[in-house]
Amino acid sequence: MIPDLLSQYASVRRWSERIAEPLSPEDCVVQSMPDTSPIRWHLAHTTWFFETFVLKRQQGYEVFDPAFEFLFNSYYNAVGEQFPRSQRGLMTRPSLFQVLDYRQHVDRALRDLLESGQLEASEADLIVLGLQHEQQHQELMLTDLKHLLSLNPLFPAYRNLPLKRGRFPGTPSRPFAEIVGGGLVEVGYQGNGFCFDNELPRHPVFLHPFRLQENLVTCGEYLEFMQAGGYSNPEFWLSLGWSAVCENGWTSPLYWYSRGSGWEIFTTSGRMPLDPDWPVCHVSYFEADAFARWKGKRLPTEFEWEAACQSTRPTGEEEPAAPFLDNLLQAELAVHPTAPGQGMWGSVWEWTSSSYQPYPGFRPAAGAVGEYNGKFMCNQQVLRGGSVATISDHIRSSYRNFFAPETRWQFSGIRLAEFV
Amino acid sequence: MIPDLLSQYASVRRWSERIAEPLSPEDCVVQSMPDTSPIRWHLAHTTWFFETFVLKRQQGYEVFDPAFEFLFNSYYNAVGEQFPRSQRGLMTRPSLFQVLDYRQHVDRALRDLLESGQLEASEADLIVLGLQHEQQHQELMLTDLKHLLSLNPLFPAYRNLPLKRGRFPGTPSRPFAEIVGGGLVEVGYQGNGFCFDNELPRHPVFLHPFRLQENLVTCGEYLEFMQAGGYSNPEFWLSLGWSAVCENGWTSPLYWYSRGSGWEIFTTSGRMPLDPDWPVCHVSYFEADAFARWKGKRLPTEFEWEAACQSTRPTGEEEPAAPFLDNLLQAELAVHPTAPGQGMWGSVWEWTSSSYQPYPGFRPAAGAVGEYNGKFMCNQQVLRGGSVATISDHIRSSYRNFFAPETRWQFSGIRLAEFV
Amino acid sequence: MIPDLLSQYASVRRWSERIAEPLSPEDCVVQSMPDTSPIRWHLAHTTWFFETFVLKRQQGYEVFDPAFEFLFNSYYNAVGEQFPRSQRGLMTRPSLFQVLDYRQHVDRALRDLLESGQLEASEADLIVLGLQHEQQHQELMLTDLKHLLSLNPLFPAYRNLPLKRGRFPGTPSRPFAEIVGGGLVEVGYQGNGFCFDNELPRHPVFLHPFRLQENLVTCGEYLEFMQAGGYSNPEFWLSLGWSAVCENGWTSPLYWYSRGSGWEIFTTSGRMPLDPDWPVCHVSYFEADAFARWKGKRLPTEFEWEAACQSTRPTGEEEPAAPFLDNLLQAELAVHPTAPGQGMWGSVWEWTSSSYQPYPGFRPAAGAVGEYNGKFMCNQQVLRGGSVATISDHIRSSYRNFFAPETRWQFSGIRLAEFV
Amino acid sequence: MIPDLLSQYASVRRWSERIAEPLSPEDCVVQSMPDTSPIRWHLAHTTWFFETFVLKRQQGYEVFDPAFEFLFNSYYNAVGEQFPRSQRGLMTRPSLFQVLDYRQHVDRALRDLLESGQLEASEADLIVLGLQHEQQHQELMLTDLKHLLSLNPLFPAYRNLPLKRGRFPGTPSRPFAEIVGGGLVEVGYQGNGFCFDNELPRHPVFLHPFRLQENLVTCGEYLEFMQAGGYSNPEFWLSLGWSAVCENGWTSPLYWYSRGSGWEIFTTSGRMPLDPDWPVCHVSYFEADAFARWKGKRLPTEFEWEAACQSTRPTGEEEPAAPFLDNLLQAELAVHPTAPGQGMWGSVWEWTSSSYQPYPGFRPAAGAVGEYNGKFMCNQQVLRGGSVATISDHIRSSYRNFFAPETRWQFSGIRLAEFV
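Output (structure tokens, whole complex):
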């Protein structure tokens, strides 16, 4: 196990730095809004996790800089006072380069620990958790930098990759095809790998017969909703959703810009014309819900989604072949479902109608790491699937992502459901 | 049915005016915060409901004042533009007396309609809905006026009734006693009477074996939580709850005032010393949840609550003997559970851990009245039971009340649960 | 002096109650915005002044209600804690009738004191100050109730007086006529009557030769400014003024409503068509300044205004024949300058370019009443003249009114100036 | 003239870059609050001034990047739309290095223009204005970077110069010594050099006999005010000042930190113990005014200040020997008045009681550069003198600096005045 963990550690840590490579120190220090964090902060905070929860307990470990404990704590009250989240972007020191040194310092110590063979099982578990944690932050780095760059009137690209853009293989908006019988279904994580505490315990739920649409909702379909007055008619909207539309002046998904008679979208490779066949993305839960109501359909519950995922997956094929990073641009330009069943992950996160709640018997982990999931179980909606910005080995059918219903800067889209 | 409806109409409408009787025109016009409404507005809006949805469709009905459609619409987008909710308290005309005239005008027309025998079934349904609607507003009138009076440094009483205050019959904090076996349980309204659309359809849910505590959490128990540092330790709190504690400076339930070494509470009969045996009241969901976590327990789901209610109710005893209005003061001073099973309604609303979601297959009513429930199904927690301010024939085991988790001005308390 | 003071006391106090007569208890309790106060609060606070500064020092005086000291203090820190200004409208008790009782109680005691012959000179001075204070609040009562009624979608009239409306006698926008030579000029109060501390000491200032326009700027002239793009061109505006235009969406003076192709204004007798010959009113300092810049002129300094007033007044004619209350409607409909020189008071307050500063050697009065003027000398502009809502014996050429530059709910207008 | 202008241009432009030298790209991109700007923005905006107002009019000039016109306009409405001030810190591109390239591009073109001998007089005037403008921004760069660094919990130093710190030569708090006779005094700029439009026209004002204190108020004196309850007693404060104290929780000047029983201050060389002999600095107008009232004195008017400056200056000594940049640390650590009369500039800006108003006959320059001064003449207080951060050839006795009364991040201090 240890050799595996070592190579996994090296690989995950390397990704974070690759994500930051195309960015300048300026890009890495600024915070675009209270919901996002500076890239440099992500790089430091993920490192802080290993230093705080693993290395500090090791005899002889020399802390890189005692101030970092305070500077790069996110929300772990049990660890100590926190630097206010909304002011992360005001901290211009330590510099990006000092943070990269911090990463090297911690990586060296952690590698030594892994190679020493002295690792306790509980420590190995914490390292695995730290890597999963870092993979979550890798996705946030991508969504946060996209948001930051979008605020610049120059609309700079994150990376300019040569495009190998192709047309969609399938037919969008295919009629409802998947049917899942109702009754008692088991949900929650099952297996020997890693999962978060919020995926447990596995337990039965009772589902009414339902169908999920095979394809994600496309930009073209969403444009129809917009042209039908979707953003000016309160009847389609939840009450809070309609308030959000009015207060924020929403008239389209995030990153859409009208240009002449058409639309452009901002992607990580800059602004480009919208393709009606792409899955719609960067919509809030409110918009997903309103679209579904307008269509006479609804969003799936998280359990319907999970049950459908289980029922359509060919045996043994747990691992999706999701694109990542090198393909991020490709992916943003041509995210597509392919064969049925494989289409349920890896292009956009899918809003579900389920609010984020503990499973029956849920117990958070002991100590500070127990603050990871449970304390956010209020006023959040569950998203399922995974997006082009999600690293592939992080995607699984029991994974529960969650965001506040007004969130739009994540790669979040729509799949429709209905009762049979 | 019509004669019954007539007497029911007269009785419900009369209640609203009785509630307002002890109040001055000044008390009736002011709005204490955006969440509350002026009493005069409640009196007018409940009347507007009957005029808009029933009387305006009748040939020959003469509208009392065309401006009222706009002035007293609450949130029915389908009916037309609305006067902004937060400015209801700025409207000093029409006066309280004009609104009472408006009530008489509408009551006369509606009585004529009921006596005419010309009533269609769909109209009768709308009248029943209007009465249920008014009963909900009657509870809000009581909670809103309590809030308004509490802001006055004189802490005036709403009514000064002679107190027949007694001690609690039962033992507070009795150990967990109720056990309800798990498995598939039917929830949702069943019967021939009135229910709201959000109580339907009745459907099975799968429950894990659980227990509910027989008694509500008392002020004395809550004081222990406070003295144990409940309000200064983030580990007990949901993340949003801890933010609410810090931003609002909460250190106790609403309407609690420290006085010397003890506590006083503000009630509708003014300020008085706190009795540790009373059920704790005017806590938010966040406080209820934090208290439960501190105790090592949890809040029940709304389905556990409903299942427990069904299982403990003696046959045929659907109707609780809840106190109301004349007894409001008594009730506020001595709300008490009595025999097991009867204790689940009529003293305080009980926060559940369930967020407010549609039942599988939920369909809102057609037209404007369909805006009644469904559009609020986001970022709200379900409360079950009923309070001292709830009129008794409005209480039933399938009733789903809902408020945002930070809400404290309702009569809301705590019942603990645990898995077996 | 005492008999005079007695009759003056009775007369001034009576006015306040006459102002409130056409209003309902509802009208008297609500606060329309943080800058205004409820009418009932004005009635109580002006009474509080006499009780606190005069009666409480008298042996044997029985306080009406000890709570009122706290409830009706405005901003006198030296007297004690204050009820927060922005929450004055949340206090529904004491009722209007209790406040009227309070007035009677204080009036009776003060009349007894005046008749006793025991009055010390310093006490008489405080009574005179209290009456001047009440006269200022009488003007605020009128501007505050106008603002409150304007927020009501019914646009109710304060009083419906029969209109004896006539055309303007003079020619509006007459060319500049008044010339005042420059040099050293004495400004500040001179005489044996009452004046506020901020009108002293009388002192010389050096003025450059200037002219004031004989007529006030009319609505018709202001409409030209609006039609010339006045509200959409930043070049005419102070930087803060342009921010105020953008943030508040100003496109006209306060209380102007476009209707078809024309304009209506809201007055104390309701909405009515705008007459282009009326002096423009309810403009902020920013609008007055922008209009002047657009015209190629400027606003006068407060000293130019005072010097012009002195130079144009026929001997002995200190007392303007200004309209009041019974004539308020008339006045609002037909405020007009008449003969030159008399036109400088009594129709609208005139914004000056002078910020509100102490005169050289200014000393506030000792004790709590010293908080009357001096502490507001920052970020306020001086207005001179007096308005239709100002009681006539309160108007004098040295009087310095002051408001923040964004203020619009006062009867404030524009007179132009230029250097010769 | 042209050769002089050329060397002056080179010298001023070089200063800006020297100021930025000790900073990282991260330090240069972040905006610490809406009142400040990122350093990189200052570097670009001062360059934009020359490109927009001088170079774009030259035939054959090639614009560096057309987007910069929009990105680096500050508030010149006449030039075009502006990038919102509060979002300057969200723009991570163009990078610091691109902005330095922009500076080189413009400098080369401007040098060519200056050397060409084709320069018109009006263009030379604009270049002189541009240099004065840049010198103002150089001071803002220093105050803005100090503010940014102060928000970092590490309290990093801007520069760590070896300290040659000496004691004060003079006796602090010497009794009032300077006397200036009253009467008519000429104020405003006189001479052949550069001055801003707001220093003209020179004109007479009438002054009452007054005295200015020879020494600036020291930290030790200010500590006495603090220990006497200065920040908790409303009687010393303007009404708006007291609100600022309460809302912001002010208990000391900006950048003061209590540490054990003493105080530390944050300077551009980091945190260090407070020396009671230093002039107090980083106080708002409100604090300066409250201190003066507590002392029984007052702040001088801007004209008293200017008159005193003229009367005490030895003949011919217009040029103060003020410290700058290399000495900034020294200066911050040991700002000191020396001989009488020289003490009136170069250590801290001195708040005056004068609000910022136009001189009689003031005319802003034509065109966009006319937006430089006049439009800010509202709700601002005048400061006189100059600070350790002011470049020495920018200091003169007629110079009018101005800031809103709550401003604290400038190097602003207190000199007391009184009437004789």
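Confidence is low (pLDDT under 50) at residues 163-175, 313-327, 333-342 of chain D.
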